[in-house]
Design brief:
Layout: H1 22-33, H2 52-62
Length: 68
């Protein structure tokens, strides 16, 4: 469950904490905190299409598989 009172920590410069995108900020930052996605990049690109390799990396991260 995602907390309803989450405050964006601005891990990614292109994810804003506003009325439209608050859910994106909350979801991606929590995913980054539990190592499902990497914080190595400073951008998340929330409006871009995800590539197959990015999708697999997220799935493997969620399943706690080692990176390939």
């Amino acid at each position: 469950d995602l907390p309803t009172d989450y405050t964006c920590k601005k891990y990614f410069s292109d994810v804003k904490n506003d009325i439209v995108n608050n859910w994106v900020c909350r979801a991606i930052e929590i995913a980054a905190e539990i190592n499902i996605v990497s914080r190595a990049n400073t951008t998340f690109r929330p409006t871009d299409q995800v590539t197959q390799s990015e999708a697999l990396a997220i799935i493997f991260g969620a399943l706690e598989y080692p990176s390939v």
